[in-house]
């Protein structure tokens, strides 16, 4: 079920979102202040989508970033998360879940992976538009493979990690 392109905002949730912004978990604070706050693409914290407040949201990449603590490992929260994720995907959003443990133990890896996924999701619509408008008889000046031996000096996109590649599919 595909909904509108732009997620709906329930303004009744505004006070809840404000409270959550003021009382972020240590892991949310670390991810926000060390990495996401000054990221080159606008990312919102504690953003309202319908009646849900997501931890972080990048509209340009259509990406929701959720940090999961121990509470998310129990059955009821898992069912709630699955229902919520399905609803968010109906807007064409990708939900990227990160455990608090990964933030604490592998922070630089998490940041690198997030960067790859965001860049991949931002470039995907551009690549789709280019493929729809490109004429087969015209060759492109931009090489999208990691093998630069074919055309030295041409811009080359870096290879994507497996998770980032799946995010683009």
Layout of helices and strands:
Layout: H1 14-22, H2 26-36, E1 44-49, E2 52-58, E3 63-68, H3 75-89, E4 94-99, H4 100-105, H5 107-133, H6 162-168
Parallel strand pairs: 3-4
Antiparallel strand pairs: 1-2, 2-3
Helix pairs in contact: 5-6
Structure overview:
With 169 residues, this protein is of the alpha+beta class. It has a domain at 11-113: VSR Endonuclease (Endonuclease, Chain A), CATH 3.40.960. The chain has helices spanning 14-22, 26-36, 75-89, 100-105, 107-133, 162-168; strands at residues 44-49, 52-58, 63-68, 94-99. The protein has a four-stranded mixed β-sheet with strand order 1-2-3-4, sandwiched between helices. The two termini are 19 Å apart.
**Mean pLDDT across residues:** 74
How many helix segments? 6
Low-confidence stretches: 135-169
What is the strand arrangement across the widest sheet? 1-2-3-4
The residue fraction in helices comes out at 40-55%
Rg from Cα? 18 Å
Q: How would you sum up this structure in a few lines?
A:
The protein is an alpha+beta fold and 169 residues long. It has a domain at 11-113: Endonuclease, Chain A (3-Layer(aba) Sandwich), CATH 3.40.960.
Observed structural traits:
169 residues; alpha+beta; Endonuclease, Chain A; four-stranded mixed β-sheet; 44% helix; 15% strand; globular
